[in-house]
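Comment thread on ticket #2218

A.B. wrote:
> Attaching the input chain for the structure job we discussed in standup.
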Amino acid sequence: MAATSKIEWTDATWNPVRGCTKISPGCKHCYAETFAERFRGVPGHPYEQGFDLRLVPEKLAEPLRWSAPKRVFVNSMSDLFHKDVPDDYIVSVVRVMLMADWHTYQVLTKRSERMRDLLKTKLRFASKRSHIWWGVSVEDRRYGLPRIEHLRKAPARVRFLSVEPLLEGLETINLDGIHWVIVGGESGPGARPLSPEWVTSLRDQCLRARVPFFFKQWGGVQKSRMGRELEGRTHDELPAVPNLPIASLEDRRAAIEEVQTHLARCS
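C.D. wrote:
> Ran it. Output below, let me know if you need it in another format.
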């Protein structure tokens, strides 16, 4: 887990899985892949294997070591619902979220069908918990809009959309059952352009539907120069963050030991 994050809508990141594979146009300039591949072959580096997908069970207990409540982006460097991540491992990750429930978890995927199906079955035990937010990436109409429908059919307490990188106008979208919308442009070399009209359309739809709206960035090759103001102001709205009690040090140590014992049994 990274103690801090430069991602505007979260506080920290937690990566019990590393690496991924491309499945849609939003993946074309993946920042996580670009970062990880810099270190391929560097002995001892967390990304010695580049962006190849692998489980990192030694990272499972990390949220239990944090006493101060944080918004935690789960798998900023992967996708929890990738086809090569076993169901049982996903269940173990989510069980840690229940153990360390003083944090708020932001789970984001492009594999929306698998997330929907697991929330109806093996993850039903966590689907209605208010401190776990379940989200899908939406970059365009062809790939993104079906993910919204999959998410809407998932039995989740909090559902959100990460509309980033936004690659085209989405026109009118159905926000029924959606509790948060993040919008942003692509950044870095080769960044594809973001039209202001696409952003203002989504902002106005969120306003009418009373859905919190967060504008992350305009993006571009030098995103810091473009900033994140939309029509003269920033938009930093979030769903309500639950205020759950922090476990005692003794209870946290016991939970960490439980996770480690479970891993030893399964190895």
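A.B. wrote:
> Thanks. Noting for the ticket: The two ends are 22 Å apart (CA to CA).
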